[in-house]
User: Fold Ribosome-binding factor A from Rhodobacter aestuarii.
Amino acid sequence: MAKNRFHSGDGPSQRQLRVGELIRRTLSDVLMRGEVHDPDLNRISITVGEVRPSPDLKVATVYVAPLGGSLGGESAEAMLAALRRNTGELRHHVAKAMTLKYAPDLRFRIDETFDRLDETRRIFSDETVQRDIAARDDDEDEADLG
Assistant:
């Protein structure tokens, strides 16, 4: 089989990125407008952070988080359960918005990006790390002068 001459590496292709962004926007709009007929799901404000389609575009992993912060484990599981319960209806909305041959199967995961970002900020604000960064900057300044 011929390789795609425009895509090299292990990252997603341009088509995967475009399809993922279209799915993300469609799901965000559907959830924001409350078009899903499930009161449990409409009660929660959900942020769709990222959608990663598989290379064949038949499966899309949707990373979701509650709007405005982190949930406890029990609430996050309730949110995922509500999304998984309504996967068929959400997939139908995505299929209407797209011109693909197949509507991708949606798989929902908790988006932990914001939690990792908070942890990174905490690490960088640590006194020892700040001292190491300042020492490295001083070493680079001396190297530039010499």
Observations:
- The chain has six helices and three strands.
- The helical segments are 14-33, 39-42, 73-85, 87-97, 113-125, 127-145.
- Residues 72 and 94 are 29 Å apart (CA to CA).
- The longest strand covers residues 46-53.
